[in-house]
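Technical note accompanying the year-one report. For the benefit of new consortium partners, we illustrate the data format agreed upon in the data management plan: each record pairs a sequence with a structure-token string. No post-processing was applied to the example shown here.
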Amino acid sequence: MRLGKIFSIQSGHRPDYILLGTVLFLLLVGFFILASASSDIGKNSFNDTYYYLKQQLIKGFIPGIIGFLAGFILYYRRWKKAALVLFLINLVLLIMVFTPIGKEVKGSHRWIDLGAFSFQPSELLKITFILYIASIFSSGRIKQIGEGWKRYLVFIFVSAIVGILIFIQPATTMAVIVIGSGALMYFVSGKSFKEVGLQVLVTGGLAILAIIILATITPYRMARVAPYWNPIAEKYVPSLVIKNVKNDNFHLSQSLIAVGSGGTMGVGFGKSTSKYSILPEPMGDSIFAVIAEEFGFWKTAIIILAFLVVIWRSTDIALKSHDDFARLIMVGFVSVIAIQTIIHIAANTGVFPFTGVPLPFISYGGTALAVTMTMMGIMGNVSRYSSML
């Protein structure tokens, strides 16, 4: 077998430098922001202002560089044959978080601890689930599973397995991100608008029903929804107010104060006051609030614009692709980034209920950063070859 069939050394055009350059910009900005957002916590906990930045570089950026290069060099169509194996391995890892090598953090079983390093198997689904969905719904494979509602049931079955394994950890928002991205891929791969439209309604109904059931049977989920929902219900539908739940919107209140304090120009880099023991999770779930406070409206808008450029270039590559597998990969990966970014920013500005979703490329989290960089490597490879087939 020629190396050219495995690695990207065959003739191809240049990768999308706008996409890759924008990602590099977000990574660099992210390191500066993380250094500021985590400085107080690092100083108080480890007597090292840059402790979390160093951890992000060691546990996130270095593995991410390796993942990016592997994704960028390996010819993207090779992932199609490996997709099922990678997905099955990921499912096993999701089960292993409940074994002795799993690590419980704040009541959640999301980590595998191997001593020298630990990681979140659910984060890996952003790659393995997307690749598997792309492989089964791209040309060639679709004939094996059938069209119409049979095809839809296959997607629901696979998504249900993933959803159950993530929900019991629990990591509800991760399920929304991963399965939501898979759903967008599924609908993009459909050929009948009428049939897909009906399936959208069915899927939406199932999703709403699942959310209601989960919120009802798990008090902590209800407690997260109540502060967001009750003010709306009290004004418009009093009978639907969620009762007997503490209406604690402290996290949202502090986030909104931080965002508002930034004004148009910001208080200055490193000068956020909200990050000092007031704003919960300033280097993770609330990092956008720190960005808005220190940078202000206009500089924050530039960062948001960078995310929009990533979405635009990725979508453009997908539209120009002549390969179904490549197109679905791009749709899946950019959907993960878009959904995660929207949820994070919306939660910090009171548009959505507050959830523990990091901001891609910027929030603290080694596994998340390494996975996102690997995704970008594969997307870079797709940008080189998919439009040539």
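Partners are asked to follow this layout when depositing records. Confidence is low (pLDDT under 50) at residues 1-5.
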